[in-house]
Structure formats: structure tokens, C-alpha cells
Amino acid sequence: MTPLRLGIAIPILAVTSLSFAGLPGRAQDSKQESSSKPAEAPGSSQVKPAGKKKKDAAIQNSPDQPAWDPLRAEKDLEVGQYYMKKGDLDAAIDRFQDATEARPGYAIPFRYLGEAQEKKGLKKQAIQSYQRYLDLYPHAEDGDKVRKKIEKLHRDIDKELK
Questions:
Q1: Sign (positive/negative) of CA torsion 151, 154, 160, 162?
Q2: Alpha-carbon span 146 to 139, nearest angstrom
Q3: What does the DSSP 8-state code read for residue 146?
Q4: The pTM of the whole model exceeds 0.85
Q5: CA quadruple 29, 35, 39, 42: dihedral positive or negative?
Q6: What is the pLDDT of residues 61-76, one digit of tens each?
Q7: How far apart are CA 92 and CA 24, in angstroms?
Q8: Which of 93, 83, 77 is nearest to 129 (CA)?
Q9: Helices 89-102 & 70-86, crossing angle to 10 degrees?
């Protein structure tokens, strides 16, 4: 056999032997099949409470961990911009917030979120969103424009309080 063929044959033999290892022909497997209840893993003879179902941790996100998904964030931005053009500010805000959760360190969704909140009249939230945008992207090309918006929103809030 050439080295190339030998290199292919060994993994194939290993896979084949592993797949036959689980067939019910062995002595201990036939013993398990004869019993009416399924075999338990060693040390797992604990009784589980009847009313509670075990939640699979592999499919549950931890509440303190963001579901980081950059592709979803981009799609949320795109759909949020569509809603902004359409005039549905609530839907746009929801999409921009989803984008900030899907990719927390991404600055752009915070700018769009600030714009939507500003148009809706949510001035304090808009200031927070704009400020987060500047924190994440301090050398933004439109940084001066965003700082002026923040100052204007602060002035508007001060006028409302008087």
C-alpha cells in the first residue's frame, strides 16, 4: 500500500470499528435489552422531582450574556432604517435596540437609535444613545455633529424644566 492509501485506510477502519461497537450483539448489551427500564449512567441513581423538567443549559442563553450575532445586528440596522423612512419610529427603535444587544460594541446602532429617539421626543434616551455612540467611536467623522445634537437636547430639556 502506498502511504497515501494507508493514511486513508486507518481512519476508515477506526470509524468502522467505532460504529460496530454500539451494536446489540455483545453480552452486556443483551443484558440491558432484557430489562424493561433503560440503563442509567453510573452514579445517577438520584430520584428526580416529578413536577420539574430539567432545562437544557446548551439551548438556554445565560441572562447576563448577550446573544452576540453580528449578522443579525446588520439586518436589524437595515430593517430599522427602513422603518425610520416609513415613519414607524417605535418599530425602528425596537430594531436598533435589538442591534445593540446583538453586537454591543458596535457604535452605529447607537447613533441610529439616538436619531429615532430624538424624533420620537425621547430626549434623555437620545442623549444616552448618542453618548454611547461617541464612547464607542470617539473619532467618528460625524462626532462634532453628534456632540452638537447632545448639547441641543440638553438645552431643550433645560427649557422644559423651567
A1: negative
A2: 11
A3: H
A4: no
A5: negative
A6: 555 545 788 899 999 9
A7: 58
A8: 93
A9: 170
